[in-house]
Write a structure and sequence with these properties.
40% of the residues lie in helices and 15% in strands. The protein has four helices and three strands. It is globular.
Length: 110
């Protein structure tokens, strides 16, 4: 996914939206997204938030896939996100991680 030039929060929001789409396409029904951007957390928690216009198609596509996904979105301070920061600096094959956002799969009962 290429965004071109823009703001960091746009890249982080696009990454979160893309991660939700991937989770839904894989059939995951419970997803927890941690992000160090309070703006991204706010956007994902509030459906009436104004989204950057160039992300609107992705926003609408993602929102339509949330009917079958239980989504938890939480803020994590960058200092507490050591693993994500380390992984984003390294090239890790087979791991879908970008912009300091991690997908977690709940292992408990549904």
């Amino acid at each position: 996914m290429q965004l071109g030039s823009g703001y960091a929060f746009e890249a982080e929001l696009a990454t979160a939206l893309h991660a939700i789409c991937i989770a839904a396409e894989k059939g995951w029904t419970q997803v927890w997204i941690e992000c160090d951007s309070m703006y991204v957390v706010h956007c994902l928690r509030n459906t009436d938030t104004k989204i950057p216009w160039r992300l609107l198609p992705l926003w609408h596509r993602t929102r339509s896939k949330l009917a079958n996904v239980w989504l938890v979105v939480s803020h994590i301070y960058r200092e507490g996100n050591v693993i994500a920061d380390r992984l984003t600096r390294e090239s890790v094959d087979g791991l879908e991680l970008d912009g300091g956002i991690l997908l977690r799969i709940f292992s408990g009962p549904t």
